[in-house]
Structures are given as structure tokens and as C-alpha cells.
Amino acid sequence: IRLEAQLREALAEGQLELSLQPLLDVPLGRIAGYEALVRWDHPERGPISAAEFVALAEETSLIVPVGEYVIDTACLAIARLVAAGADPSPFVAVNVSARQMAHPGVIERIVARVDAAGLPRGSLKLEITESGVLDYGLAAGLIELCHRHGIRVALDDFGTGYANLCHLHRLPFDTIKVDQSFSHDMLDSPRAMAIVESAVRLGRALGAEIVVEGIETPEQLQALRRLGCRYAQGYLVGRPQTLAQLLAHPWDPA
Ligand code: G
Ligand code: G
Ligand code: MN
Ligand code: NA
Questions:
Q1: What is the pTM of this model?
Q2: Where does the EAL domain lie (predicted)?
Q3: Element (H, E) at 48
Q4: Closest listed residue to residue 34, CA positions, set 238, 252, 171
């Protein structure tokens, strides 16, 4: 409860910050976009990861203003990168939670913020994790509404949890993000490699783009190239960085 009050204060006082992690377009060999990851630099405790405080924010209605801060800041950051010469225009992927999506009018407010930042609608992708799909009817309606507004939707952490093939069966995601546990093992485990390979094929069959997360070595990236995977994300491509860091070294892998 004390942390909740502190989070409310952090939001008001601008202690929340965004990190942006680049995604590589594997066949083209260039940065295609960024995933926004929210951070909280707590005055006494130091940096607190999103994993820690997003769960807390979800238990309260704080996830709504936190989510709006993230969308706003992410769109403005991408607009700054574009203004600084990022070419072609990158996309920005923003994580959203079920609690946030259940709020009436949330998509319309998100669209208004994309427009206000001067970005094309297609530059925003919403990333939904398994826990973000509480109800298929609701999720399908939200995805349809996003598509009508030109916003794309990704299924995050694919391969973990219970119902991910059900999600793909019922919901028309534009992007599937394969969880990093598979890429970490794929060069040592033929089973992990088989799963990544199947995900790439599944994406092609479903008309969804595949992102493989957690790429840390050139050998893993080479394997993705061989499989015909479209996007790679991970420390090899770049660590999550602040906008200031990205503007200082726009195309350096971190
Ligand atoms: O980068 P980090 O280890 O803190 O991320 C941990 C988790 O927090 C990830 O699963 C990520 O999806 C989630 N996350 C990061 N930023 C946000 C955000 O802005 N909103 C939501 N709902 N989740 C986020
Ligand atoms: O659940 P989601 O995929 O949104 O979470 C992304 C998290 O994964 C972030 O916390 C990010 O810092 C972390 N991450 C990104 N790339 C790598 C990587 O190559 N290796 C590891 N171990 N973690 C990564
Ligand atoms: Mn994500
Ligand atoms: Na993920």
C-alpha cells in the first residue's frame, strides 16, 4: 500500500522513465522498431523493474495513468527519433495489460495520442501477454477495433503459459513474439530449435510476423536468418536504452 502511494507520487513527479529496446529486421539488417519498457527510478530503492510495479499497478486503477504515460512517452520518443533522421520510420511496441484494455474508450484515447505525436497509426503495436487475454470475446473486439484504427497487435511471450495456441486459433494477431527461453536453448537443444522453426512456419501460415526474443549471440542470429525469421530482439541487437542514449548513438548496437 505504501508502494502504491509512492507509485502515484512517482507518476506525478516524473520518476517513471521509458527504455527502448531495438528490434532488428533480420533479412534487411536494419533496426525496424523499438519495444518500450517502463522503468521506475525510486528515490530510495533505486531502479525498480516493470515486472515488479506493473503487477501492483494492475491491482489498482493506477495501470490506466501508467499505461497512458507509457503510450504518450513512447509515441513522442519515436517522433523524436524520426525527426532525428531514423529512416525508414520505426514502429514502437508498447506492452498493455488486461486491466488497462478493459477500460472503456481506451483504444480511442490511444489513437488520439498517436495522432497527437504526429505518427502514422501503423507505427504503434500493442503487445498483449497471455494474462492480457482474459476473455476471448473482449480481446477479439479490441483487436478488431485496433485494426479498424490501423493499429497492430502482437502476442507477447508466445510459448509460455497455458493457452497460447488457443490465442492464435481465436485471435488475429499481427505479430507473434516467441519467448526468449526458446532462443536461449535453440543451439544446444534440437527440441527448442524445432519449436522456433515451427513458430516461424506457423507465423507464415497465419500471416503473422514473427519476432524471436532474447537473441544474445551472432550464432543465434544466424540461426534465425537460416529459418527465415523476420525480426530479432535481444541484447545482441541492443539493450533497452533511454531516448537520450539512442539519440546520441542512433544505430550502434549497445
Ligand atoms: O524490462 P523488464 O524486465 O522490467 O520487463 C519486465 C516485464 O514488464 C516484461 O514482461 C514487460 O512486458 C513488462 N512491461 C514493461 N513495460 C511495461 C509497460 O509499460 N506496461 C505493461 N503492462 N507491462 C510492461
Ligand atoms: O515479457 P517481455 O518480452 O515484454 O519482457 C522483455 C524483457 O526481456 C525486458 O525485461 C528486457 O530487458 C528483457 N530482455 C530483452 N532482451 C533480452 C536478452 O537478450 N536476454 C535477456 N536475458 N533478457 C532480455
Ligand atoms: Mn513485450
Ligand atoms: Na516477451
A1: 0.95
A2: 1-254
A3: strand 46-48
A4: 238
Closest residue CA from atom 6 of ligand 2: 37
Residues measured by CB to lie within 5 Å of ligand 4, the ion: 156-157
Q: Name residue, grid cell 536461449.
A: 184
Residue 186 and residue 192 in contact, taking contact as beta carbons nearer than 8 Å: yes
Distance CA 15, CA 140 (A): 34
Q: Give ipTM to 2 decimals.
A: 0.96
Cβ neighbours for 36, distance < 8 A, ≥ 6 positions apart: 18, 19, 20, 70, 73, 74, 77, 92, 93, 94, 95
- Around ligand 2, the residues with Cβ closer than 6 Å are 21, 37, 95, 156-157, 180, 213-214, 216, 234-235, 240
Q: Is 176 in the pocket of ligand 1 (CB under 6 A)?
A: no
Q: What is the pLDDT of residue 254?
A: 46
pLDDT tens digits for range 81-107: 999 987 678 999 999 987 888 888 999
37 lines ligand 1 (CB under 6 A): yes
Q: What is the largest CA-CA distance in the chain?
A: 50
pLDDT < 50: residue spans in the chain: 254
Q: Of 160, 71, 161, 163, which is closest to residue 119 (Cα–Cα)?
A: 71
Q: Choose which residue among 17, 18, 35, 54 to substitute to test ligand 1 binding: the one with the highest number of ligand atoms within 8 A of its C-beta.
A: 54
